[in-house]
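Supplementary Text 2. Reproducibility record for the structural model of the 489-residue chain.

All settings were left at their defaults, and a single model was retained for analysis rather than an ensemble. We include the record here because the model underlies the residue-level annotations in Supplementary Table 4.
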Amino acid sequence: MIKEQLNRLTKSTFIYGIGQVLNRFIGFLLLPLFTAYLSPADYGVIAILGLISFIAVSLFSLGVNGAVGICYFDENNDAHKQQTIWTTFFILLAGTFLLYACAFLFPNQISQLAFNTKNYADLIVMTLLTAGMTILTSPFTLYLQFEEKAKLFVVLTIVTTFFSIALSCALVVFFKRGVHGMVESTLVASMIGLFLFSSFTFFRLKVQTSRKMIHKLLLLGLPLVPSAFMVFVIQHGNKYILQYLSGLDAVGIYNIGFNLGMAMSLLVSALQSAWLPYFMSYVDKQEEAGILFGRILTYYVFTFGSVSLLFFIFAKPVIMIMTQPEFYEAYKVMGLSAGASFISGIFFILLPGIYFAKDVRYVTIVQIVSTAIAIVFNFVFIHLYGLLGAALALLLGFATMVLGLMVWNYLQKHRYVQVLYEWRRILQFSVIYVLYGVLMLWERHFSLPGELLVSLIATCLLPFFIYSLLKSNERTYFKSFYKRLRRAC
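Retained model, structure tokens:
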């Protein structure tokens, strides 16, 4: 039974993951092209605009995206589900109206606040317009995830990304639009995404709303607005501090490593897309969930943790191959950025107890405390280590958040679903993880062939360390899987 349920989750995660990895891989291949046409300062501007977009989406979504899942699965009938999605859409439509009012009324002020100049006001307007499109698309993307229509979700996402990348290449390379070209292409792609996702769901959902549902969504969602802001501070706040201490060039270099490492977040978000509807299906089967969810966390840590270690292992040669020399310092950020994404996935896997008890407001408390600690990490480590310090603070911020949620779950163990987590094996893997990270970040001055050799040796050793952590039945399964793979090849 456990094996069958794991296969169900794995299948959905794989489909979401394939689509998101393909999207990021295309962008990765174009990195040498864009770094030839955009300077570190240009990437710094793009990074700050990304932060503004993140804040806008988090604030003007009114927190309802985090509450939709709880409301959607409250009742198992089509009318209730349709009502949930459309009520969410109209709430977000009101939020988007407020966002667009700010975009057109205060672009100069926002530009001054973000960049200490009003010269980027036009980019601010386009960025906030894009954020509004993202907000309005979200209920339709959530509907496809809740109904486990992963293939359709992935196809629509790939089409949207294709338009974005093609247009950005045309505007940046051929029309020499620079940062404006990147922002303009993202805006057009967001409009296409809204059209596609809304079109494919409009005919499946009858338009109906409910005042009771509005109240419920806002009651559950508004307490999550500070939560989203806390995640923003942990994930992106170090860029503001880095800009203040070292300038836009440093932010641009950091952002290259950050974005390459955030490719890991595509895999993690694929699991998250499959995980919410999956674990909510156990709300009435919590005894069965206790063993299953514990095993899922262990396998997540082993599998996704190993993948994130590859970002540490190959960071330096990848940066040397894919960027210009002025961006080489970005290798210090890439692995830690991937590690932060990996750790954020652990936080998400630990959420079922809070969701089953409808205690999502307490997530905000955990994140507020974690954010305060993360801010201290940022000031201390950025002052001491610059780019590396910013990335260290990023990873430690998410680790603090996970630790805080673990403590809260333990304090509420009499109320929450009892999950049998395998903390001993997870701790053993954590020791391997830290050792790998420290060794790969160790300062060295090898040529590209030397770096590739180091990466190859480290990669070949990793499976043996992971194999040593497996139980006998898991080793048997691993051996049989390896034999099938060899026959297939």
